[in-house]
Amino acid sequence: MRKKHGFTLIELLVVIAIIAILIALLLPAVQQAREAARRSACKNNLKQFGLAIHNYHDVYNMFPRANFETRSTGDNSYWGWSAHSMLLPYFEQANITGDLDFSLAVNESGAGTPNWQMITRRIPVFLCPSDQGPSDPRGGGNSYVMSAGPTLYWGHSGALRGGVPLSEQVGVFNFRARVRIGDITDGTSNTIAASEQIASGSGSPDSKLAESWGPSDFSTINLSFPTQTQMQALGTACKALSDAASATGSVHRRSGNLKEQIHWALGIGGQTVFNTVYNPNSTFPNCVACSGCWSTDNIGVYTARSRHTGGVHVLMADGAVRFVSDNVDNTTWQRLGGRNDGQIASLDN
């Protein structure tokens, strides 16, 4: 009789165990490779922003403002158009620009109108592949935010304390202050022009930090270059509020009747603007001063955030893209956001 050969049960289990171990070892490497590719694409998107803002400057001899009010916005400047909207032709999106009516405020483009059809379009260069996109698919989405510098940004006279005056709108992209290359006296290679934000919402712990929580007390906070002591106290109070907000209903999300969406058309904090007050990916949430209003129509803190491990990409005003650690010195981070404070900081130091 011939003896039959085959695998024993133990041998089969050993082979399965080895395969499982190999998969466990290889899967993180595959995920890291995919994230490296996404991170590279995200960096390239910011480089496209650098080309766009400099091409815009060549044409208009200034960078775009962060908020463009129209004759129909009146006191509702939170419906002003964003710098992203002005930069569309330089992203090869002139077809969208041609179909937009910039004489109208953003909120005057209701569902079914040509404006609405355009501003709800997703534009790939505005979205970082590492992020998951907005939680509401109707929103245009936006992963990249222009730098208002170390200032509370909002300049409208109806804001708390009368808003941020022109003298303290110290970033490259401001509420009303116009900036030319020559105005960046700290040096374009030492001044931040744009960075990243978390555009997606639903469910992840870091997305809660990226939402705007209020009301918070800004009465003792410097309008520009706030001290670390001031910001620590504000962040602690705002964090405590945000922990309870979902139960009390006092949370104010990002954008009025576009709420819970991130939108590239709106020139407001947390949508297309951030400030260099808290460090990147701060454990303190975005904080706003308003109560009973939309989350972004007042002074506030809007932090650079990303889903990349350890920091965020930033676009410098000279067009270079750098990666900045979450642990950057806060004074350095604030000075990198200011364009002409005379306290020159560098990421190479």
TrEMBL record:
| InterPro entries reported for this sequence | DUF1559, N_methyl_site, Pilin-like, Pre_pil_HX9DG_C
Give the matching Pfam families: N_methyl, SBP_bac_10
What this protein is called in its record is DUF1559 domain-containing protein
Q: Give every DUF1559 domain span.
A: 31-330
